[in-house]
Amino acid sequence: MSSVKITFQPANRTVEAEEGETIFDAASRGNIEIGNLCGGQGVCGKCRVRVLRGKVRRSAKSLGYLDRKDLDEGFALACRTQILEEDLEVWVPPEATTEQEQILTADRVLRFESPESLEEESAATAVSHYLPLVKKIYLELPEPTLTDNLSDLERIFRELHKKLGDTGSCADFCCLRDLAGSLRQNRWKITAAVHFTNPACPMIRALEGGDTSKQNFGVAIDVGTTTIVAQLVDLRTSDVIGVEGSHNVQARYGEDVISRMIFACGRGGVKPLNDAVVTTINSLVDSLANKAGISVEEIYCLVAAGNTTMTHLLLGLEPCTIRLEPYVPTASRFPHLLAAEAGLHANPRAVLHCVPCVSSYVGGDIAAGVLACGMNDQSRLSALIDVGTNGEIVVGNSEWLVCCSASAGPAFEGGGAKCGMRAVKGAIETVRIEGDQVFYSTIGKARPRGVCGSALIDVISELLQAGIIDQSGKFIEFDHPGVRVVDDTPEFVVAPGTQTETGQPVSVTEDDIGNLIKSKAAILAAMKVLLGSLGMSFSDLEQIYVAGGFGAHLDIEKAITIGLLPDIPKERIQFIGNSSLAGARLALLSVHAFRKLEAIARQMTYFELSVRPEFMNEFVAALFLPHTQMALFPTVEEKLSRKRRQA
Question: What pTM value is reported for the model?
Fold first, then answer.
């Protein structure tokens, strides 16, 4: 096959490509980010690009997403447009890029006691309750004599026993290489990097000449579907040295886990997805080490929390059976391994721990969230909600935990909407309607490019309260200056074309509203079924924790108004930030917390909603703003009645 060159604008970057290859595949190879939701399946229409020069072959499948004007102007779907024997110049419009994503790097741990000093050693006590997973211990060994002629390794074990108390000791075989020479060259002064996953028999992972005990760092990682966040932690002091976040490069193969599973189990295979997530994590680790002024070889432990699919892809495991009935993953608990085996940047003997998962669709990120918010240690009834493409819900207390997952679709991340987009620069994130005027704010204070999930919720709540749409989500007031009808579909203009980056209006259509109603209905119905199975209702919830990036930008009152969250006193609802990252850090700093995390994953009982007929009944009942049973939302009913009286 002949080779051609594609120049992508406005980046002005040229990529070599083969005849017959798609523009999307060539862009992915050249690290040109083109937004998409479906992983190149041609069913989302989000990878629109404009061919400025050269000829291409468009697939008939893409024509449903392009009108005659688009075709005349050279627009094409990158994933369904093949390259011919001719150099190309392609324009990637702003709405198709993923620049400056708003990433939640903050976490709030609701229950965490300060670790004891990790420098203090005690021969009389056992391992510290808050001992990190890997600790470096400096040893000064007595020189061997004819009367004290223990082997070098046994001599190390003896000194460790004095430091750690009544525990056994184990050592990795690699520690024996060059041990004799290292001990004698360093005058019997040595530092042991000890792995405490099994406190009864700590494992020596590495032996280093001299005192290197102060050079001991760990990394906690939230492996999210959309974004990845990493924290560098000093394992001696428990201080967070730095935090970095990045868009998950895997997104080029699909925005959601289903798209990525289809890619991994079809034409692409697991390797491109594994390479993408490893590359993203390594870039974060390198940046953290750089800014802290340390070498990556001073990192001795990593703890990663992610959903079940992301964990499989990080470890290079096939996720194919996760999406097929009866929805069984390869593993839900993962043996630890050397970070180097996973391709991660760290000390050659550093250990990688992946937080255990519960089921195919409730992963380690949720178990970490439970640990972070402490609901498993409380007597009161609490719920943890993580809203995304899947809505994961945990209900319980210190005695029991139950969980489920509801497929919410991409609506909460701006997917599927006419002007929807992720929370990146230029996305409208808040909206307020006052009479004929519309007020909004954008991420990065940039000119509007589209609306993200939090803005969609704001718009629907505002339209409902203003009487512009009814409780089924249909437009009923067409005299408002923001309402117009395009191709027989009513829509509300949030930002006119004169104010936007693209020159086109940013609007929310009746279809967009319907899609988000379905998504919120799935979340609410799942929670109601979960509580109903236990003989409980929303009013029994004493606390709701809302986790994740979407929750951090959610307006509680508006979320209740549309029926995404139950109508309980607002003071009972609390955002907890990136709880997946917080739980991973707790596990990194404390063997006790890590073992508790493993117990949480075992303790949670998973409810499979697809086999529960009452879920569909509750889902249909929730396809209303806020619900067909208004008695469940008394404050919303009173507010809407007051608005109608005022009107």
Answer: 0.84
